[in-house]
């Protein structure tokens, strides 16, 4: 009987470790994807380069951190844990939406949503793959 109880405790410990390991793997994957997304946004924003301030304002914020004030979309926001947020704009650069969508006098030069649409499936597949891999590895222990 004691042997079965010990086995059940070990099995429960393994099951309890799976969500923790999956969460860690998801965060690493999301940060990698967030950096890739921010890099692509910076590349696409090159066509609108005037001073370079817009390009420099694009940044990835990891979970549980504050996004820059006045950033688009959302302004200063606390990013939920196990997530990342890529933003454009800051206190000095308050015009990313005007570059993205255009104005009456300036044509649209999309960079933000274009980059997101280009990488959406890649990010989703990477994150799913990394979580599944973490669950499999934890199950083998």
List keywords for this structure.
mainly alpha, elongated, 4 helices, two-stranded antiparallel sheet, 2 strands, 141 residues, 6% strand
Protein architecture, described:
The chain is 59% helix and 6% strand. A two-stranded antiparallel ribbon has the order 1-2. It has one domain (22-140). The protein has helices at 2-44, 53-57, 96-101, 112-140, and strands at 59-62, 84-87. It has 141 residues and is mostly helical.
Total strand count, please? 2
Sketch the topology as an H/E string, one letter per element: HHEEHH
For the report, how would you describe the main beta sheet?
2 strands, antiparallel
Tally of helical segments: 4
Helix content: 55-70%
> Biggest sheet, strands in spatial order?
1-2
Separation, N- and C-terminal Cα atoms = 23 Å
Q: What radius of gyration results from the CA coordinates?
A: 21 Å
Alpha-beta classification: mainly alpha
Mean pLDDT: 89
Q: Give the total of domains.
A: 1
List the uncertain runs.
Answer: none
| Shape designation | elongated
User: Strand percentage, roughly?
Assistant: 5-15%
Write a brief structural summary:
This protein has about 140 residues and is mainly alpha-helical. It has four helices and two strands.
Summarize the helices and strands and which ones pair or pack.
Elements: H1 2-44, H2 53-57, E1 59-62, E2 84-87, H3 96-101, H4 112-140
Antiparallel strand pairs: 1-2
């Amino acid at each position: 009987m004691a042997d079965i109880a010990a086995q059940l405790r070990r099995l429960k410990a393994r099951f309890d470790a799976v969500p923790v390991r999956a969460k860690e793997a998801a965060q690493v994957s999301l940060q990698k994807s967030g950096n890739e997304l921010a890099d692509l946004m910076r590349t696409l924003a090159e066509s609108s380069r005037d001073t370079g301030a817009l390009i420099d304002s694009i940044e990835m914020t990891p979970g549980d951190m504050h996004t820059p004030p006045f950033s688009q979309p959302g302004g200063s926001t606390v990013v939920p844990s196990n997530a990342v947020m890529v933003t454009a704009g800051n206190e000095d650069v308050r015009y990313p939406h005007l570059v993205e969508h255009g104005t009456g006098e300036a044509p649209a030069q999309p960079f933000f949503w274009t980059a997101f649409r280009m990488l959406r499936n890649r990010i989703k597949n990477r994150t799913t793959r990394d979580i599944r891999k973490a669950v499999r590895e934890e199950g083998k222990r």
